[in-house]
Structure formats: C-alpha cells, structure tokens
Amino acid sequence: MTIIGFLGLGRMGAPMAANLLKAGHTLFVHDVSEDAVAELVRLGAEAAGSASALGTQCEVVFASLPTPAIVREAALGPDSIFVRGKPKVFCDLSTSGPQLAQELSAALTPQGVACFDAPVSGGIKGAVEGTISIMVGGPEAEYEAILRPLLEAIGKPTHMGEAPGAGQTMKLVNNLLGAVAIGVTAEGMAFGIKQGLDPAKMIDVLNQSTGINSATRDKWPRSVLPRTFDFGFAAALSLKDTRLLMDEAAAADVPLPLGQIVQDYLERTLEREGPEADFTAIAKVVEEAAGLDPER
Ligand code: NAD
Fold first, then answer.
1. Active-site residue set
2. Does the keyword field hold NAD (predicted)?
C-alpha cells in the first residue's frame, strides 16, 4: 500500500481522500480548514500540519484546490510540498488549466518528480460514489506503474497523453459542454415557462426527447425545479474554468462564441447572487431577463 498525501479537502477533495483511505492506503492530509482536516482524521487519516510536512511523509501527493494560483503555491511556493521532502509523484486533481500543468511539469520533472494533471468530472455525487471521470496528462510509464491503480480507487481514469496539460485540455472541453448545457436549458425553460408550460413536465419531456443533456438530467431535477440552487459547484469556480478555457482557446486561435455567452451568464450570476452562488443560479439570471420572477 502506498503512503499518500492529500492537499485540499473540500467538496471534491474530502470524498476522494476518503475513497483512498477505504482502499487501504495510508493517508496524510492537509487543508487550511481545521474542520476539513478533523473530518478526514475521524475517518482514519493523519494530519500533516502543512503542505511541506505532507511532502516529507508521502510518496505520492494529490491536490484538489480551488484555483491555479493556490495549486502553484502548494507545488512551488516557499512552504510547498517539495521544499523538504521528495515525493515521487505529484497529481493535481483540480481544474487548473493546461498552462499551469506545463509550468509545474517543467519545474518538477527535472527534480525527479513524475508530474500529472488529472482534473475530474462528475460532481460531489461522483466523488462520493467513486465514479468520477478522471482525465490524465503525464508520463505513461509512471501512470501505469503507480498512478492508475490509485486513481481507480477514486473514479474512472483515462490517460489522454504524455504532454503536460492533456488532461486539463480535455477537462476544459468537457466544462464548455456542461456549462453551455446549463445556459441553453435555462433559456429553453424560461421561454416555455413564460408561454405557460409547467416546468416539471417540461423537464420530464426533455428527458425523453432529443433535448436531454446533463442539465435536464441532473441539475434541474436536483437544484432548479426545487429552487434550492445547491448543486454543489460554485459559480465562481465555473467562471474560473470558463476563463481558463477562453484564454487557452484565444491563444490557439479557436473562436468559442458559446463559451463567451456562458462566461457572461456566470459573471451576471455572481453579480446577482453574490460570491457563494451555485452555478445552477444561472437559471435565475436568464429568468429575470425573460421578465419572470426568479424568487417566485
Ligand atoms: P472547495 O472550495 O469545496 O474545496 C477547496 C478546498 O481547498 C477547501 O477545503 C479549502 O479550505 C482548501 N484550501 C484552499 N486553499 C488551501 C491551501 N493553500 N492549502 C490547503 N488547502 C487549501 O472546492 P471544490 O468544489 O472541492 O473544487 C476543488 C477543485 O475541483 C477545483 O479546481 C474545482 O474547479 C474542481 N472541480 C469541482 C467540482 C465540483 O462539483 N465541486 C467538479 C469538478 C472539478
């Protein structure tokens, strides 16, 4: 069994770390939130105390952190995972974009660290159930020998290529489709509701028709129809992902007008609902523009 470090025990990190524990691995954990650490310690993990302490104790370190800047600090900063110890493998499960994956690989590979980007998709439910899709970029030999068996305890990994950032690029593509599905579902629903259709019946019909998508299947039944807007993915993080995508696409000379619309919807969602808004609250922005009362 491998000695694993896990940095970032949030909505996604905590259940992924718990699944590594269940698979029988020794787990050292760290998070700036003491409550988050305490919950994993209750399940059998050991508290490392800091990112650098985690690095002294572990062979493989996973990170599930909110922003690329925080991931960079954890991997390359003054109190980072690699300042005191030398884990053999670093695997970033966060959505951090291809550019950071390239930067981390360029800095850590010469130090003998096998560096992987491995963003995930499938939400909190998938992370808890161990069914999330994991999109991996990084060296194939170490992937097969060390990383794949560990990732299989968390979800369903696919190796997208050896180039650093290959997993992140795949994740940005997936996020574009997921976010556009929310935007277009919000638009179609607002139109139907304004014309007098029943929203619950509309979702039932869409889910047995060609309009079915990840928003009609999961997001509307769980968080929009009941008006709870608590699906579990922050609009701020979704906006971060969309901006990463738009920057990468602009650099690659690929126009993404649908991505631009979604970015605009997410910015308006944060303005309307505040920094803690869930990304399903896009529906409220679209309803308001349609002259409906989102607080109905
Ligand atoms: P979250 O905000 O719930 O969790 C982030 C955790 O990191 C928090 O517990 C926070 O205390 C901790 N943290 C912040 N700074 C830290 C630091 N310097 N050192 C240690 N810990 C620190 O976020 P999340 O929803 O779990 O998302 C994590 C990553 O996964 C993001 O990149 C996100 O884009 C991605 N993601 C999220 C979802 C989702 O449905 N929530 C789905 C797929 C991918």
1. 171
2. yes
Residues of the chain with CATH 1.10.1040.10: 169-289
Contact 29, 48 (CB under 8 A): yes
Helix (H) or strand (E) holding 135: strand 132-137
Q: Over 90: is that where the pLDDT of 275 sits?
A: yes
Report, as an integer, the average pLDDT of 2-22: 97
Residue ranges, CATH 3.40.50.720, the chain: 3-163
CA of 172 to the centre of ligand 1 (A): 17
CA of 10 to the centre of ligand 1 (A): 5
Domain 3-163: state its class.
alpha beta
Residue to substitute in 7, 16, 29, 31 for testing ligand 1 pocket (most ligand atoms within 8 angstroms of CB): 31
Averaged pLDDT, 147-151: 97
Nearest residue (CA) to ligand 1, atom 5? 10
Span from the CA of 209 to the centroid of ligand 1 (angstroms) = 35
Q: Which residue has the tokens 């439910």?
A: 125
What is the average per-residue pLDDT within 185-199? 98
| CA distances, 245 to each of 71, 254, 278 (Å) | 17, 10, 19
Atom nearest to 121 CA in ligand 1 = 43
Residue 239: the pLDDT is 96
Q: What is the pLDDT of residue 1?
A: 81
Q: Does pTM top 0.90 for this prediction?
A: yes
Superfamily (CATH H level) for 169-289? N-(1-d-carboxylethyl)-l-norvaline Dehydrogenase; domain 2 (1.10.1040.10)
The pLDDT of residue 179 is above 90: yes
